[in-house]
Design brief:
- Chains A, B: Keywords: ATP-binding, Ligase, Nucleotide-binding.
- Chains A, B: InterPro entries: Acyl-CoA_Synth/Transferase (IPR051538), CoA-bd (IPR003781), NAD(P)-bd_dom_sf (IPR036291), Succ_CoA_lig_flav_dom (IPR032875), Succinyl-CoA_synth-like (IPR016102).
- Chains A, B: Residues 9-109 form the CoA-binding domain.
- Chains A, B: Pfam families: CoA_binding_2, Succ_CoA_lig.
- Two copies of one chain form a homodimer.
- Chain A has 479 residues and is of the alpha/beta class.
- Chain A has three domains: 1-139, NAD(P)-binding Rossmann-like Domain (Rossmann fold, 3-Layer(aba) Sandwich); 160-302, 3-Layer(aba) Sandwich (Rossmann fold), CATH 3.40.50; 305-472, Rossmann fold (3-Layer(aba) Sandwich), CATH 3.40.50.261.
- Chain A is 39% helix and 17% strand.
- Chain A is built from 15 helices and 21 strands.
- In chain A, the strands form four sheets. In chain A, strands 9-8-11-10-12-13-14 form a seven-stranded mixed β-sheet, sandwiched between helices.
- In chain A, helix 4 links the parallel strand 10 and strand 11 (190-195).
- Chain A is elongated.
């Protein structure tokens, strides 16, 4: 048999869920429900010898009994039963020619570290691969494709927003936490979601390579524990980053963390310094914290890449802005923009008499005497000025400006210039859930918001790093 | 006249609000409303020559007309009118003997950097001080004392929770952002709240010294831009930290940030390396990010100080825990605890057969086969073990465990040991607002929760730093 394409995971003509369960709330029930709810074709086939029908779908006794085309097989049975399913996949593929993509959600394999578990995984994978089928997992949550209506997870709800972010993760829990974090305030829209678990066949490198040519993937957020061939990963990453950004968080940086990673997905974390240097060389943007990872991934989807490192601060709050400027300038990669006399005069003209425009250079404190129109007008002037590459707007939204008015002012200020003039605009709303409605309005329109001004600064630096990488590698056309 | 005590700001027999306004939503109206709503005595006196009554309170034409005792005067008029108020304060204090505490909320003084504004501030302050009264501000939001019902701000709502945290800040917006951040999930309970603005009289050093002996202050969270006498600040801080922790965030670390601070409160930020070294020497715990500052302040209020640096990870999610262990161990200040064989056996006995107990040492992955009772029993065993100094529990709460059951299990596990055995327990709930109810239940019972496991680790390290400081300075009795 020919080897199946990775594409089969994302565009299967039919999906079989082996071990689908009728027990409400169980993972194997949830997987079926999500698959059914999201499917654009309706070709979802539960397999469970003890049931005739689950969730209103005809249930089959085995994979071999399904009369229709099944490109994607999801294995969600106990580890001891998984080997038998592998042989059925081989049999089916050799007989019918489909079943080329296999997502093994079951755990209890190599990550346990026992000889039996390792042998079981090896035989299962070898069996499936012997007929040219490809495997994601085991010990993973498989794949989601929001646009194509594919979902093998029990944790990514069908209501997840569409966007240009693709998540690749060795940890299922880590990837789903990202979406749960984002949900309430609509912070993230995704395209694809791939959790790789033990990476017994398809690994992070091959997945990355696939996403390079995936048109709907605008940015890749990658959680990495380790890989057996770091050099190959970096070679592939280099070709990807010339087309779209990769944001990575690397786990197992320390000896203790590396031991945890090994007990988790049998990964070998490797020397962190080598990874760190390699990431820089191939243009992977490394996040130092989970919060930074979450935000950096999403801003690349929502905002254009900055043309340079000259950032303007527009604020109504001095203290938080001081901390923002510290974080922005401390690495030397970003600087406050230089305001021309004309810009200072024109911004002063649209703000109140108390406003501080340009002390220090690149910094504007509108003070508390503000209106929505001032926000809009000031933003429009800053957007139009070519000596500014990005804007961080910081506010503790005052009670006398309504959420809708504030969101609209930001949107109108940003959109006052044509698309080719646009630059990243981050809005820091320091108010917890108190202005949740304003946050959601902005996020829905594609304007990233933040809670902490220093985090916004660090994420802006990450955007600048990618911009610099493209420039230094002669890849300017995207900007 | 004798110099008034700082105490008058927090326990005034009467409060006059100069410039109180009837205009709904304006700061000067809000200050009056909050003062009235929170006052335990009812002695709140609006002063405004254009009104007879505001918010149901008799309004006076000037401070001099108030027939009752006024210990605290809040100035909330335009800068140009503030000098006249200063002379009235002097007149009243010399005639009646009260009016010893003055909070100047008005802005438009030294922070503008103009000669006139500086001269105006100087004359105003000199006038007030000449009669022994003390000044907080100008360009600040003044003080809050939640227990005594005092509130001179327009931004700290009367519903703010009571607790042991006292906030001292040169930036009003920064301090109120902390409370807005905390509000929805009830993350923080405060005692006092002091914003100092331009620090023309009472400064951060004197405020710190006062809090050393303030019994309800269990921990101090301090936002600092700069001080004219750093040595004195450190001397005072040293005596405070022998009694209670100080968590600080220092703004103006960079040249650009320092310029912003100067335009904000006329502060001189000073050399950051000197501050950094001095903080360490006197036991001030420095937060590197706003998020870390917010959390570190609050955990010292909610949890006991750890006796050592041996931390146990209890988790259901491998990936996020790997990142947590990286963050926990990377500075060398914390380590994973060592489990005795007895502990491993007893923890294994209360968890499912799949659970990983002690691989690596100090680490427990309960896996997805969990019940509330397992959480409770495992926590109780870890709490009782003297080779563990702190616990970080990490979960993406599964759908099959109810929020209330989870919160109760955590509480019962923690409380299974007597108070003297208690150690810090952080609960990381990686789920955004999806488990907001569980978060609130835990926070209300005094159990700090987190969104990010690496942040929890960094905050645990901050607790360990303070514990180490106390040990190395012979101050062990608090632990």
């Amino acid at each position: 048999m020919n080897e199946a394409s990775i594409n089969a995971f994302f565009t299967p003509r039919g999906v079989a869920i082996i071990g689908a369960s009728a027990r409400q709330g169980s993972p194997s029930n949830q997987i079926l429900k999500y698959s059914k709810e999201m499917s654009l074709t309706g070709n979802v086939f539960p397999v469970n010898p003890t049931a005739k029908e689950i969730e209103g779908l005809k249930c089959y006794g085995s994979l071999l009994e399904i009369p229709e085309t099944v490109d994607l097989v999801v294995i969600s049975v106990g580890a001891s039963k998984a080997l038998n399913v592998a042989y059925e996949i081989k049999e089916r593929r050799e007989a019918v020619g489909d079943a080329g993509a296999v997502a093994i959600v079951s755990a209890g394999f190599k990550e346990l570290g026992t000889e039996e578990a390792i042998a079981l995984q090896d035989e299962m994978i070898a069996t499936i691969k012997s007929c040219g089928a490809r495997v994601i997992g085991p010990n993973c949550q498989g794949v989601v494709d929001i646009y194509n209506g594919i979902n093998t997870t029990f944790s990514v709800p069908p209501v997840t927003l569409k966007g240009g972010l693709t998540i690749i993760s060795q940890s299922g829990a880590f990837a789903t936490s990202y979406l749960r974090w984002a949900k309430d305030h609509k912070l993230v829209g995704i395209n694809k979601f791939v959790t790789l678990g033990n990476m017994a066949d398809v690994d992070v490198t091959e997945t990355l390579a696939f996403m390079a040519d995936d048109e709907r993937t605008k940015v890749i957020a990658m959680y990495l524990e380790g890989t057996t061939d770091a050099r190959k990963l970096m070679d592939v990453a280099k070709s990807v980053t010339s087309k779209k950004p990769i944001v990575a968080i690397k786990a197992g940086r320390t000896a203790a963390g590396s031991n945890v990673a090994h007990s988790h997905t049998a990964s070998i974390a490797g020397d962190d310094n080598i990874y760190d240097g390699a990431f820089k060389q191939v243009g992977i943007i490394r996040a130092n914290t989970i919060a930074e990872f979450y935000h950096t991934g999403r801003v690349f989807d929502k905002m254009p890449i900055p043309k340079g490192n000259r950032i303007c601060i527009l604020t109504v709050v001095g203290g938080p802005s001081t901390i923002c400027v510290d974080a922005l300038t401390e690495t030397g990669e970003a600087q406050l923009a230089h305001f021309s006399d004309e810009l200072v005069t024109s911004v002063q003209a649209v703000l109140s008499g108390n406003a501080n425009v340009g002390n220090p250079d690149g910094y504007i404190d509108m003070t508390a005497s503000i209106t929505p129109v001032m926000h809009k007008d000031a933003l429009a002037l800053l957007m139009a000025d070519d000596s500014i590459d990005g804007i961080i707007f910081i506010t503790t939204p005052p009670g006398f400006i309504g959420s809708e008015d504030l969101a609209k002012a930001i949107e109108e200020g940003y959109n006052a210039v044509p698309e080719e003039k646009r630059k990243p605009l981050f809005s820091v709303l320091m108010a917890g859930n108190a202005v949740g409605d304003c946050r959601v309005m902005l996020e829905e329109k594609g304007f990233p918001t933040f809670e902490y001004p220093d985090e916004a600064a660090r994420v802006m630096i990450n955007m600048i790093r990618y911009s610099n990488y493209l420039k230094h590698n002669g890849v300017d056309e995207r900007m």
